[in-house]
Structures are given as C-alpha cells and as structure tokens.
Amino acid sequence: MSRYKIILIVAVLVLIAGAIYIYKEYHRTNKNINKEASAFNLSAIELVRSFTENDSLASRLYVGKIISVNGLVRNLDKDNRGYYTVSLGDTASMSSVKCSVDSLYTIAASALKPGVSINIKGNCTGFNKDELLGLDVMLNRCVIK
Description:
Blueprint: H1 3-26, E1 40-43, H2 44-53, H3 55-62, E2 66-78, E3 84-88, E4 96-101, H4 106-110, E5 117-130, E6 134-144
Parallel strand pairs: 1-2, 4-6
Antiparallel strand pairs: 2-3, 2-5, 3-4, 5-6
Helix pairs in contact: 2-3
C-alpha cells in the first residue's frame, strides 16, 4: 500500500470520528435532575445562613452539586419566554434562594402560590451578594417535588 493511500485512509477516519463527536455533542441533553440523588437536604434559611456566614466554605460545599431545599415560596416570577423562577426564604429577610425551574416542570411551577411550603431540587450555581438587597443563592434546572 502506498504512502498516499495510508494518509488518505487516516484522514478519512479522523473526519468520520470528528463528525460522530460533533453529532453527539449537538444532540446532547441535560440529565433530568429528578432522577439524580441530592448531595444535601436543607431548608432555604439554612442555605442562606451558610452563605451569609462563610461564603467561600459554602461555595466549596454546595456549588456544582445537586441539593434539595425546602422552604416557603416568597415570590414566583415568569419571564417573557414562559420560564419560572421561584424565590424561597423567610419573608422577614431580604435574602432568598432563587430557583430557575426546568422547562419540563413549568406546569407544576405555575400552580405555586406565595406562602406555600415546597421542596425543590436543583443544581447550585453560586450566589449574588448585595449590601442593600441581601444575598441570593442561585439554583438552576430545578424540579418541584
């Protein structure tokens, strides 16, 4: 076999492997968090308190992990695309847990009312801290349990 044919075969194999990789990445979906195990189960007040007291330790513990949070619904927001964000926490505090609801669970989110106690599971992505507005812990792809 000539050197030209070997190079051509290798190039074709690399192109096929690249095309398969691109196809798989393009059609990849997020895992359903409802089927994932929670690394932590805690209340919204406990989660906010841990970020308020020591945000670097809380970030190492919770960020990037699936956590279950229970608490009172403070607020329910719907954006212009129809996606819901649920705020959990104590009504006396400015701080809260902001939960962006997974699009598969928008019907369950639309039935929520402020003041109702719920359990929600999501991926902790971090926090936003403001001196005047308090601290918001962010969860995304949330599932209402």
